# Entry
Amino acid sequence: MPEVLVIGAGLAGLACALRLCEAGVDVALHEASDAVGGRIRSDAVDGLLLDRGFQVHNTGYPEARRVLDHDALDLQAFTPGALLRYGASLHRLADPRRKPAWALSTALSPIGSLKDKAAVAALAARAALTPVPRLLDAPETTTYDALRSRGLSDTIIDRLLRPFLSGVFLETDLSTSSHWFDMVWRSFVRGTQCLPAGGMQAMPEQLAARLPDGVLHLSSPRTALPSGKAVVVATGGRAAADLLGTAVPAFRGVTTHYHLADTPVPTGKAIVLDGEGGGPVANSVVLSNVAPTYAPGRVLVSSSVVTGDASEPAVRAHLSRLYGVDTARWQHVRAYEVPDALPSMAPPLGRLRKPVLVRDGVFVCGDHRDTASIQGALVSGRRAATAVLSSLGR
# Structure
């Protein structure tokens, strides 16, 4: 019998099991599904790669840099900016330090006053240069209240930051904790948003490939906790609550639609936002422009809905206005409804990282125990493994 049972082979469970194996612990990792990844799964559909919900990786995540081989993932980068639909035009917006060619269009864009644009620049500088402990020592409010207190007007919040952040936090009220906003903004300023060429599932698969033979057991659900051995519950938050008898964490949901466009869409590698809020789509991107491996020789568009009418006709109509093209001949490929896409990070968060020890011999990890991110999932897995090793006297 193994010394430690890990339940759930998402990023957290894989990170935990891998660290335990590297420490010489006999581990069994059980996953109810037919593949690793948890919520980070990718489907092959008629020659296309479809991630289950729009997801991106950030090279600025310290734990990801430590445990993942970014070179082997062949990361495909997004443009460090966005295209904003406002009026009759798509306006190019970017941090001029990272995208100098877009500096003039950013300065002239109708997103707010020069004061607003200077406030956004100050926001980026604060995130990049302020040590994390100082960011977290600031009074905690909602993201909206923090933005207003830092000199940003409702104009630039509604035209730029609300459309952008709704796709990140999966809520439109900007009610997410200001502490978490500061952490996320810091990761955007310091890292690069990207996709593995083989789909997002390539990340958990890379971790799984490093496990010793016989550790991973797929299609192996566990409905109860065994006694007499250390157990790490690394499932999603809802399943973890069922196994542990604890409260279900609050989650944010999203619906992502995939379409094949009939002609090329010349938006480059930038995400597209609606500065007028005229429809249900929070963000959209031509994925095949960013990572051609997702749709070789074709034009694949991913669009996500956080609130409002997530039906395909409503999304298609909004996309026509958003891109300024006729979408009548676009082929709808698939829609993914992900109700538990991200744990809510509403204030007060208190400690960003919650304890991993539940009771003697029982541990828990996942982004719902840390932060709502790939970084949070990986860190929580490491923290759980460290706690298990301590309990075993290793």
Remarks:
- The radius of gyration is 21 Å.
- The mean pLDDT is 95.
- The chain has 14 helices and 18 strands.
